[in-house]
């Protein structure tokens, strides 16, 4: 594969600082390490080394889903990938499944889920037009073709049926559990991401225990290590709390 006009490229320096851009969008990039000529990338393969006028090096790579979510424009708080991946581990989500999601926010979770279930579809409900518009742009720029965004309040109901997963990241998930029962297929899951434990409790209390099984709430804490010749230890700073994740399965 060699890079051509219009391709997305990732420039990464030796310290991990990243730039993501579309080839052809401009001729030069001004960075903390000097200026690079982006036209030099045309016709080159991933792994090509771009040297700035200050003699610093950038590796030119194809961006992944992770790079894309890190670098895309965001408005409301997005879900972290360490949390999003828990959905797969706890529901078995896979290709060809169909998902309903709310709210879409900046579409970080939408992009993640759309890539897992493709060619299945993800339908996302969002009440704010500005967030819906940004999400459409982010999804289009990523190249997702299996996503639909509806400017609609999910508390009023879910139109879709025979769904494998209803994924929620909004303030009152307890208002959706009844609608999710109608939308989900038997064996399908509901997932809710909530920053506070009060939301987890309200969500749990709204689940009719005659109709839901495998009800659980988890948190995912990751600790990164600094590996050095002189010694290896946990990093001093870590992301302490992002949110709780609740799951339940329709009987
Ligand atoms: C924290 S953001 C979601 C972020 C998203 N998961 C991401 O990773 O980019 C919460 C979103 O829910 C939307 N929202 C809140 N209540 C809603 C409702 N009743 N129906 C649909 N969307 C709603 C908000 O407008 C906001 O965009």
Task: Supply database-style keywords.
about 250 residues, alpha/beta, Vcp-like ATPase, Chain A, domain 2, Rossmann fold, 2 domains, seven-stranded mixed beta sheet, four-stranded antiparallel beta sheet, 6 helices, 15 strands, globular, binds S-adenosylmethionine
Explain what the structure shows.
- The structure is a single chain.
- The protein is α/β, with parallel strands linked by helices and 251 residues long.
- The chain has 2 domains: 8-63, Vcp-like ATPase, Chain A, domain 2 (Roll); 68-250, Vaccinia Virus protein VP39 (Rossmann fold).
- It is 23% helix and 33% strand.
- The chain has helices at residues 65-71, 81-91, 108-117, 129-142, 177-183, 197-205; strands at residues 8-13, 18-22, 28-31, 34-37, 48-51, 57-61, 99-102, 122-126, 147-151, 163-168, 184-194, 212-219, 225-228, 231-234, 244-250.
- The strands form 4 sheets. Strands 9-8-7-10-11-15-12 form a 7-stranded mixed beta sheet. The protein has a 4-stranded antiparallel beta sheet with strand order 2-1-6-5, covered by helices on one side.
- It is globular and about 65 Å long.
- The mean pLDDT is 96.
- The chain binds S-adenosylmethionine.
- The site of S-adenosylmethionine has 21 residues, from helix 3 and strand 8.
């Amino acid at each position: 594969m060699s890079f051509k006009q219009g391709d997305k490229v990732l420039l990464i320096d030796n310290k991990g600082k990243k730039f993501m851009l579309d080839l052809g969008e401009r001729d030069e990039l001004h960075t903390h390490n000097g200026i690079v000529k982006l036209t030099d990338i045309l016709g080159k393969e991933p792994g090509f080394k771009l040297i700035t006028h200050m003699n610093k090096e950038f590796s030119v790579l194809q961006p992944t889903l992770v790079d894309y979510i890190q670098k895309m424009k965001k408005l409301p708080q997005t879900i972290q990938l360490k949390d999003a991946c828990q959905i797969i581990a706890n529901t078995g989500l896979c290709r060809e499944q169909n998902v309903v999601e709310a709210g879409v926010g900046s579409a970080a979770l939408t992009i993640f889920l759309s890539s897992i279930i493709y060619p299945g579809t993800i339908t996302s409900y969002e009440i704010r037009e500005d967030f819906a518009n940004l999400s459409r742009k982010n999804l289009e720029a990523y190249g997702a073709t299996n996503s639909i965004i509806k400017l609609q309040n999910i508390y009023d109901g879910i139109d879709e049926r025979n769904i494998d997963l209803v994924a929620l990241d909004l303030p009152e998930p307890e208002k959706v559990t009844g609608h999710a029962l109608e939308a989900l297929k038997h064996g399908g899951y509901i997932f809710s991401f909530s920053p506070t434990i009060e939301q987890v409790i309200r969500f749990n209390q709204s689940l009719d225990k005659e109709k839901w099984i495998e009800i659980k709430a988890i948190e995912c804490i990751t600790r990164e290590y600094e590996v050095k010749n002189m010694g290896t230890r946990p990093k001093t700073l870590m992301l302490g709390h992002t949110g709780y994740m609740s799951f339940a399965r329709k009987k």
